Amino acid sequence: MRQDDEGPIAANAMDRVSWALRRAEWAVQALKEQRLRPLGMAAAQYSLLISVHTDPGLTGAELARRLNVTPQAVASLVARLEQRGHLERQPHPRHGHVQELHLTDAGRDALRQADAVIVEIEQRIAEKLGPEDSTRLTALLDQVADAVREA
What we know:
Layout: H1 17-36, H2 43-54, H3 60-67, H4 71-83, E1 87-91, E2 99-103, H5 105-129, H6 131-150
Antiparallel strand pairs: 1-2
Helix pairs in contact: 1-5, 2-5, 3-4, 5-6
């Protein structure tokens, strides 16, 4: 018996909810990368910028947890965005050794342009699904997230 044949694998393994979620995420991420590339931005940079916009003052460690990436990955992204003038570090008001991240004016401009691209992608999805299914999908995905957190 070969090692990869030791345990049973369900015939419908690729039809599971988790794989459907992953296929959808791959498709969305690929389109985001393609559409953001002309702006000189990657999807990961957009995610970081929108997170800092939503919660100004996040630290690198907080961003790593939020984006589900390593602190080293965040540090690399932050360094690139800081070099472009999109982010600035400011000392934490109570913990001087901690650096908070804030968008610069250039960062807000870059984020506006990138967000317009993301809105177009989301509109494309919503048009394909229709308003009722789009709303329902969002609610179902929230339920999936809740179920996984409860596990």
